[in-house]
Amino acid sequence: MTDTSNRLADNDPQGESPKASQPDKSPSTSNAVSKNLGNKHALRHGVYSYALLPWESQEDFQALHQSFRNDLKPRGSAQEHTIFTLTHWAWKRQRVLQMSQIGFYRSPVAKSLKTGEVDWNERVSLTANNAT
């Protein structure tokens, strides 16, 4: 049975990825610029990140990975890889849900609901009227 928990060390956001340590073979510098922008976008919202973001808990990721391993009991490297991929996608899904919640709570709608300026039913009816 292959243990994939050491893959987190390979995906350490503080360290260099294997691809980043290899020399760039492209003649153009625009590829290097776009790679750097891609990294910044990965850290901004995490959707395109292949690693844990600096503020995310490695212990929580490992606990999620171990729970999938305990439930599915993989046999062989293909199943281990599938479980690691499943863990990665479940983690990303959780990240996206958290970001959407943060976006909602920063919106003026949430502020007006919290202060009591409008109630939920009024907001739903305003939204329905604006859609038509």
What does this structure look like?
With 132 residues, the protein is mainly alpha-helical. The chain has one domain. It has 7 helices and no strands. Helix 4 crosses helix 5. It is elongated. The termini are far apart. 5% of the residues are buried. About 23% of the residues have low confidence.
Shape: elongated
| Number of helices, counting only DSSP H or I runs of 4 residues or more | 7
Give the class from helix and strand content and strand pairing: mainly alpha
- Please count the beta strands (DSSP E, at least 2 residues each): 0
Q: Oligomeric state of the chains?
A: single chain
Radius of gyration: 21 Å
- Work out the count of structural domains: 1
Output the keywords.
single chain; 67% helix; 132 residues; 7 helices; mainly alpha; elongated
Give the SSE layout:
Blueprint (H helix, E strand, L loop, with lengths): L6 H4 L7 H4 L8 H16 L12 H15 L4 H30 L1 H8 L4 H12 L1
In short:
The chain is mainly alpha-helical and 132 residues long. The protein has helices spanning 7-10, 18-21, 30-45, 58-72, 77-106, 108-115, 120-131. The chain has one domain (7-131).
